[in-house]
Amino acid sequence: MIDSVHRELxxxxxxxxxxxxxxxxxxxSVALTLSVVSAAVYVIVRAEFQxxxxxxxxxxxxxxxxxxxxxxxxxxxxPKYFQQIADVQFFLIKGGDLFAPAGSDRTTxxxxxxxxxxxxxxxxxxxxxxxxxxxxTPYRVVAxxxxxxxxxxxxxxxxSIDHALQRLQLILLLSTVAGxxxxxxxxxxxxxxxxxxxxxxxxxxxRVARTSELKPIEVTGHDELARLTTSFxxxxxxxxxxQERQRQLVAxxxxxxxxxxxxxxxxxxxxxxxxxxxxxxxxxxxxxxxxDDVRAQLEELTTLVGDLVELARDExxxxxxxxxxxxxxxxxxxxxxxxxxxxxxxxxxxxxxxxIGEPQLLERAVTNLLDNAAKWSPxxxxxxxxxxxxxxTVRDEGPGIQPEDLPHIFDRFYRSSEARTxxxxxxxxxxxxxAAERHGGTVEVSSPAGEGTTFTLTLPETPxxxxx
Length: 468
What we know:
CATH class of the largest domain: Alpha Beta
CATH topology of the largest domain: Beta-Lactamase
Oligomer: single chain
Order of helices and strands: HHHHEEHHEEEHHHHEHEEHEEHEE
C-alpha cells in the first residue's frame, strides 16, 4: 500500500518542475507541522478548560457541603431562576433517589443521575466527574459526598466553553491555511531565486547544443551553485580548447600533407607524360631517381599519417597495458634504428626497469628520440643512450637547438628553421611527450651550446610480480 502511494506520488511530482516540487513539498511539510501543532494546541486548551471548570465546580460543591446549605437549599426549594442566574444547578441523591429544586424539569433532571453519582452517595468513591449532553448542550456534572448516603450533584453548562473551542478551531484552521499559503509562496520564491543559476546552466547547455558556441556563464555568489557554474565554465573551456586543438591539427595536417602529395603528383605526372610520348623517354638514371623520390615521399607520407592517427587519439591508456622491462624496449628501438642509420653509431647502456605500459607506444617514443638524434648527428657520430633508475637519456653530438626553439620543441608540427629543409613532419617529439604523459612520466630537453642535445625521458617504476 505504501509502495503504491509512493509510486503514485512519484508520477505526480515527476511531471512538475523542480521549482514547483520545492513549493509543493514545502507546503506539505508546513501543512503537516501546523496540523500537528494545531491539534496539540486544541487538545491542550480543551483539557485546560475542562480541568479549570472541574476545579471550580469541585470547590463550590465542597464549600456548599461544608457550609451545610446544600441539603437545606435543595429541600427548601431553591428558586429555579436563582440557579439560572448562577448558571449552576444543584441536586441531591439520597438512597439512590434524585432530589431537585422545585420547578425543575424531571426529564432533564434525570440525566444528572447515574451509577457514578450513586456510588459517590454510598461512599464507594469520593467524587465523580463526567460530561452529559442535554438537548444538544453539553453539561459538566460533578458529584461529592455530602454525608453518609447523600451526594451533592452540581451541573454546569459547557456552552460557553464549547463556543470558545469552536472559535479556537476556526482560528487554528485559518492559521494553518494561511501558513501553508505563505509557505508555498515562500517556497516558490526561494526555489525561483535559488534555481536561477540552474536555469542559466540549462539555457547555456541548450545554447551550446543549438549554436555550438562555448561562451562561459557569469558566476555570482560563493555557494554550491556558484561552484557548479564554475565547473561548467571549466568544462566549456576544456571543450573549446579541445575543439581548437582539433581544428589546429586538421589545419596543420592539411599543410603538412600538401608537400608530399604535391611531390608525388608531380613525379606521377612526369612518369605518365614519358609513357605517353616517345619524345620524352626517361633514361634509366632518371627513372631510378624518380622512383627513389616517390619511395621517399611515400615513406614520409606513411609516417605522417601514422603520427596523425596516433596524435588524434584522445582516449586514456586502455590498449592492454602490461608489465614490461623498459630496458628491453630501449634495446628493440636501438636495433631498429641501427638498420636505417648506418652513418652513426649507438652507444647503449641500459639497466632493467619494470613498468606497466604499452610496449608499442613506448617503443615508438624511444625510436622517435633515436631517429631525431640520428638525423642531427654528424657522420660517424655517436648517440649515447643510457637507462638508469627509470631515467632514459639520449644525447647526440649535433649542433644543438637554438634557445628560442626549446620551449616549442614538443609542440605538434613545430619545426625549427634548420629542420624545415630535412625530412620529417614535426610530430615525432609530440608523440614522445604524449607517451611519457600517458605512462605517468615526463620528458625534458637540454641543449648547451656546443655540446649537442640531450633528451631525458623518465618513467615511474612498477614492482615486478613475485614468483609463487
